[in-house]
């Protein structure tokens, strides 16, 4: 099925916002895509005609089985390109999202499969998000928790939930990225900040807000 870039962006955004069978509102989708609700309504009608979504006015939007399949293909391409940019071209993790937003629209299935093979068929992207395989399946994630809730002292970073450029750049500057091993030195009750220590680096203190967005598991 040939879709425009705009149509693909809508399908991916619906996938991102939809949880289970919960319908996505036109206002919520408009906010996500920074557009007007009227524009969302117009696009919803087009996507319904292509049998990618179920949509009734005032009842919200849900992906059909074909729509979910399409969304997972786009997500797969996006996250594989992020891996390529970080692992092979040495981009930092805060730089790759916007580039992958463009590259994800290259629809060659053969290219996508070759890219995955070239990268060693990764199961997570540089931010820790799961990568769908060619059949739309994602590996079951291992248990993880946010750093502010971690009980173990020795931990490894497994994902980042806030993927804003500002936070990713901050973490990169502090030497914190996917796979980084760290040790909790102290919790400070006054402001809930956490002092952490990484190998061969001095201890540093991070705020509760930052810690809430770093996912970890025990080493």
Structure summarized in a few sentences:
The protein is α+β, with helices and mostly antiparallel strands and 219 residues long.
The main sheet comes to: 6 strands, antiparallel
What overall geometry do the principal axes of the alpha carbons give? globular
Spans of 5+ residues with little confidence (pLDDT < 50)? none
The fold-level CATH name of the domain at 145-218 is SH3 type barrels
Number of helices: 8
Rg value: 19 Å
- CATH class of the domain at 145-218, anyone? Mainly Beta
Q: What would the average pLDDT be, to the nearest integer? A: 95
Count of distinct strands:
8
- CATH-wise, what's the superfamily of the domain at 145-218? Ferrous iron transport protein A (FeoA)
Bin the helical content. Answer: 40-55%
Portion of residues in beta strands equals 15-25%
- Placed side by side, the strands forming the largest sheet appear as 3-8-4-5-6-7
Helix and strand composition category: alpha+beta
What would you say the CATH architecture of the domain at 145-218 is? Answer: Roll
- Report how far apart the termini are: 45 Å
């Amino acid at each position: 099925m040939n879709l425009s870039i705009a149509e693909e962006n809508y399908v991916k955004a619906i996938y991102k916002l939809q949880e289970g069978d919960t319908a996505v509102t036109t206002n919520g989708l408009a906010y996500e895509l920074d557009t007007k609700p009227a524009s969302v309504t117009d696009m919803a009608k087009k996507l319904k005609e292509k049998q990618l979504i179920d949509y009734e006015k005032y009842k919200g939007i849900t992906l059909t089985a074909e729509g979910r399949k399409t969304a997972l293909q786009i997500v797969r391409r996006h996250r594989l390109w992020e891996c390529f940019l970080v692992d092979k071209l040495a981009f930092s993790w805060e730089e790759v999202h916007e580039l992958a937003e463009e590259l994800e629209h290259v629809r060659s299935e053969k290219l996508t499969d070759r890219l995955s093979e070239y990268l060693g068929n990764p199961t997570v992207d540089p931010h820790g998000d799961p990568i769908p395989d060619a059949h739309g399946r994602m590996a079951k994630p291992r248990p993880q928790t946010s750093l502010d809730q971690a009980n173990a002292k020795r931990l490894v970073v497994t994902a980042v939930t806030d993927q804003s450029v500002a936070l990713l750049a901050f973490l990169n500057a502090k030497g914190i990225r996917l796979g980084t091993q760290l040790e909790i030195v102290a919790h400070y009750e006054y402001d809930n900040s956490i002092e952490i220590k990484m190998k061969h680096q001095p201890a540093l203190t991070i705020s509760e807000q930052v810690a809430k967005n770093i996912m970890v598991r025990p080493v």
